[in-house]
Amino acid sequence: AGYDVVKKGHDVRASVGVLTEQHGLYMRMTAIEYLDFFGQVYSLSPSARKMRSENLLDYFGLAEAAKRRIGEYSKGMRQKLALARAMMHEPGVLLLDEPTSAMDPESARLVRDEIARLKSSSRTIVICSHNLTEVEALADKIAIIYRGRILIQGSLDELKRQVLGAPEYEIKFAEAWDARGVQLPHGVETVSVTPTSLKVRVEAPGDANPQLLKSLSTVSAPLLAFQEETRTLEQVYLKVMAEAKGREYVQ
Fold first, then answer.
1. CB 141 within 8 A of CB 135
2. CA-CA distance, 216 to 134, in Å (whole number)?
3. Rounded Cα distance, 57 and 67, in Å
C-alpha cells in the first residue's frame, strides 16, 4: 500500500483488507450489525455503511439472512461474510487466506468472479491457497513458498518454462505416416514417434509452429490433431517441492 507499517499503521489498516483462516466473527451479532460495526471502525459515514453493507450482503447471497445471528450461519455463509467484511472499506490491498474454503461450487465461483473483477480495479490482491487450479485461474504472478522461503516466483508461463522446460506438442495422423523426408524446423526437437503420431518439443512456438505445420503438409497421411500437451501448476509445484525436499535430505 506504500505506507510504513510502523510509522503509518492507521493508513495501512485503512488501505488493507484481510481475510484470515480464523475469521474472528462475532457470533451474537447479526450480519448487518457486524458489517456496520466494521464500517464504523473504518470511519465510514452512516449512509456509506448502510449502502456498502446492503450491497455486499446482496452480492454474496446473504441479504435474506442479514438479520440472523452469525452463530446460526453455516461455515460457507461465514466465509462469505468474512470476505464481505474484508471488502467493506474498498481497500487498495486485499490479503486473502484460502478465500473459497468450505464454500459450495456456486459460492466459490461467485467469490472467484469477484476477485477477478477486483483485479481490474487498481487493487493488489495477495491470495494464499492450496487450490492450485484456482491459483492458475486468478493469479498474474505466483510464488511457491516452503518453510518461509520463496523457492520460485513468476507468471504461470514463466514457471512452466523454468521448471518443466519448453512446451511439447502432440501431432496425430488419421493413419500410419512416414517420418522419412520430413524436415523439422530449427528449435523443434523430436520427443517420440509412433506409427500414427509425433511428439515434439518446441522452443519458440510462435515462430516454429507455422513452419512445422508447413513441413507436415508434405506427409501423405491426413493430419488429425495438433495440440499442446497439458502442463499444470500442480506439476510445477510437485517438481519444485521434490527438489527442495531432496536438497534438505542431502544436507
1. no
2. 37
3. 11
